Amino acid sequence: MTETTSDPARGARSKGTKAAKGLRIERIHTTPGVHPYDEVVWERRDVVMTNWRDGSVNFEQRGVEFPDFWSLNAVNIVTSKYFRGAVGTPQRETSLKQLIDRVVKTYRAAGEKHGYFASPADAEIFEHELAHAVLHQVFSFNSPVWFNVGTTQPQQVSACFILSVDDSMESILEWYKEEGMIFKGGSGAGLNLSRIRSSKELLSSGGNASGPVSFMRGADASAGTIKSGGATRRAAKMVVLDVDHPDVEAFIETKVKEEEKVRALRDAGFDMDLGGDDITSVQYQNANNSVRVNDAFMKAVESGSKFGLRARMTGEAIEEVDAKALFRKMAEAAWACADPGIQYDDTINHWHTSPESGRITASNPCSEYMHLDNSSCNLASLNLMKFLRDDDAGNQSFDAERFAKIVELVITAMDISICFADFPTEKIGETTRAFRQLGIGYANLGALLMATGHAYDSDGGRALAGAITSLMTGTSYRRSAELASIVGPYEGYARNADAHQRVMRQHADANADAKRMDDLDTPVWAAATEAWQDVLRLGKKSGFRNAQASVLAPTGTIGLMMDCDTTGVEPDLALVKFKKLVGGGSMQIVNNTVPKALKRLGYQPEQVEAIVEHIAEHGNVIDAPGLRHEHYEVFDCAMGERSISPMGHVRMMAAAQPFLSGAISKTVNMPESATVEEVEEIYFEGWKLGLKALAIYRDNCKVGQPLSAKKKEGKGEGQPEAEKVVEYRPVRKRLPKGRPGITTSFTVGGAEGYMTANSYPDDGLGEVFLKMSKQGSTLAGMMDAFSIAVSVGLQYGVPLETYVSKFTNMRFEPAGMTDDPDVRMAQSIVDYIFRRLALDFLPFETRSALGIHSAEERQRHLETGSYEPADDELDVESLAQSAPRRVEPPKVVSGTSEPQAPAPAPKEAHSSTELVEMQLGLNADAPLCFSCGTKMRRAGSCYLCEGCGSTSGCS
């Protein structure tokens, strides 16, 4: 591992010689004399990203250079999000090499300038190892590093900020300004409003104060305005209020009342979906709200006693409330609209390394960063799957030694970045440089646990997660102590030395007390124990370079950059996921972790294959052939028929929390059927288990969401008695004896065939015949049967575009080159057939939205940037010929008076979330990406778009 020369016990490069002051850097992955770039195969790719809802091109850059093992999604996201320079100009970055060099060379230069390295040779090894780790997706810095470092703009490296506000109008207006500047840069901020006097207190002039809830309106409007002003993601903010603030009940009810407003406006006909025209009238929607509770309050809840709300100016209790009733209001509000979350004040400050410099009062928007007011934290996350080893005998182990080396490398780089970083405000810059808060974390925990045969909600899974987290934080503080011996401890350390060392002992004690479970976690615990012993020894001697070292962030965009299956501390979303294909199209695949898990559990290759086939077909493991019931839990996911229980998520957070400097960004999902009592239990157990913060989300609790609400069964209050129901029953419309048709000969991957498509005289496609050249073959027989099925469906009114969306991109042999200039490549005969039918019978707008264009249209796009023909080229008659089919009138039968709309046709999936919705027949409560229209998925307490990498918060 990397080592310092200030402590001979850690080793020196050569015995018997006195080493120069500075870090000696040991190679981890690289080879002397060989640059990391020369060890991989590079290729050129075209990045074209579209909004699938309207077919518009969001981003296009051709000929970018990436390693051949990077996925299409990772290439798209890094190119569109992180490459700098205007597209189409010589200044635009075109290669991953340029991006990595821009960042790592800046880090190396700053490290040399500030005396971090023992020699230029060590600086070069540092640069090469850092480049190798990013190149091979072993870790990633947070997004601001890739945006800003090495550019001419301010080199902001932090994504998370905590502000402060005092009880004065000047301070409140400064809060608005500072928050706005942070939002403008695409980052997020949080703060505690509890210093602002309540509406139940008097101003010096004798009038009543406005109270913090009133000032929240102005900040929320500012955030909403900046969001709509062109930012690449919504403004992310956290608002915290102490539980003993006299306005705490009004704070708790802010979003609940707004949800009632949303319902009323929706029922009146206003557009209240996310992104709708009228949703902007709703207040308090741009922030996550959290109540900061203390132990005294929670004990009062436990005992059912009274609790005092205290004046902000004098500290005296001005009102007593029933603690249990107030806690119930919090749970009811969270049940109704997911806010407020809860933060546990005494637990947070019990683990505070710098209490002499001020209490921790707030967090960043995603709740993982918690430290002093007016401070910031830059993040980096490791890809845990990169450290899972499989030996020749098929045994697995977690490479604790290499993991520790990478942690040391990354912590060194993160600390160097503070030397040159810019900050949005002077106060934040001063505090961050004085305390040098870092936030190393990880992604892919869910994938790692499944791959190693551990259920997410199991003692073994929690033990492995705890061991890795302990090793990560222990190694980070060890390196921090080593850095302190070279470039000095953080400025605020002397004043807080006793408290900082006390917290280090708390971490070490928690490590010693943790339960060891199996052959995977035990060696990691041993390495962590050694690290914490070094922390106590070196910290007592040299102090620490950093007041904070670790958090567990959402890892949204950077998780996609690293091709991670799971984000942060989250479990897998589902067993089958959506994958984009190079060259266009997509497919659904069973997660790669599933076969690894089955192998670890002792299943033979034939059994593994059968189980994977079952999962591919059904989306779950229930009744999978040969899979033992006791192993079902290993494959439990965040969504689906076997989803992880809410308390299972809480227990996992509790397993990691004692080994983190900060906290964990995670939302505990609860089913729609969950009760208020269950929310109370979650919030209460979070306190008992030692969490620092917690938020819940009950499915479908939000009204303003891009989902069609399910109709409730039975009558509502005040509804008239049911008299009749309108049902839409399909009626078959047969073709006349004489019908126009088109016969097309085709070749797909060497297989020849003929397709005859017959139309209604005035109303679109109604019949398809498919004949393969090899009569009597199985393929020919299946094609005959398939033709009949499709034809009958068309005659019953199934829209052609539904067939096209379902059957294009279906992949099986024969596949490959065709003899059709409009469809040069086909992934199967079915893929070709429906692309050809779309070109022949669907209007331009419909097939363009599906990404299907003729050769002429593609050529026009290259020449003019548009697929659409000029007005004088439009063939109005042909468009009319392919107009949608008429709908038969409904038939009325007895029943209720409400008309029942026909079920919508199955949609095409464009993300893993949408794929899960299709497979399981459920709706995921997640917004649509404002950049590309794809349904996002949860990443911690934020949302992430798999399509373009946009997030709804800080990452």
Keywords:
955 residues, alpha+beta, Anaerobic Ribonucleotide-triphosphate Reductase Large Chain, 3 domains, ten-stranded mixed sheet, three-stranded antiparallel sheet, 16% strand, globular
Number of domains: 3
Mean pLDDT: 84
The major beta sheet can be summarized as: 10 strands, mixed
Number of helices: 28
Q: Which oligomeric state applies?
A: single chain
The SS-based structural class is alpha+beta
Bin the helical content: 25-40%
Uncertain segments are 1-20, 228-233, 704-727, 871-906
Please give the structural blueprint:
Elements: E1 3-4, E2 23-24, E3 42-50, E4 57-67, H1 72-82, H2 96-113, H3 120-135, E5 139-141, H4 143-148, E6 160-162, H5 169-184, E7 188-192, H6 212-228, E8 236-242, H7 248-267, E9 287-293, H8 295-303, E10 306-310, E11 317-322, H9 323-337, E12 341-344, H10 345-350, E13 375-383, E14 388-390, E15 396-398, H11 400-420, H12 426-435, E16 438-443, H13 445-451, H14 459-487, H15 493-513, H16 521-542, H17 557-561, E17 576-580, E18 586-590, H18 593-600, H19 605-618, H20 646-656, E19 667-670, H21 676-688, E20 693-698, E21 724-727, E22 741-748, E23 751-759, E24 765-772, H22 778-795, H23 800-807, E25 816-820, E26 823-826, H24 829-841, H25 844-849, H26 855-864, H27 876-881, E27 891-894, H28 912-920, E28 937-939, E29 942-944
Parallel strand pairs: 6-7, 7-8, 8-9, 9-12, 13-16, 19-20
Antiparallel strand pairs: 1-2, 3-4, 5-13, 6-13, 10-11, 12-20, 14-15, 17-18, 21-27, 22-23, 23-24, 25-26, 28-29
Helix pairs in contact: 2-3, 2-11, 3-11, 5-6, 7-9, 8-9, 9-21, 11-14, 13-18, 14-16, 14-20, 15-16, 18-19, 23-24
Domain Ribonucleotide reductase large subunit C-terminal: 158-697
Catalytic activity: a 2'-deoxyribonucleoside 5'-diphosphate + [thioredoxin]-disulfide + H2O = a ribonucleoside 5'-diphosphate + [thioredoxin]-dithiol
Region (Disordered): 1-21, 864-912
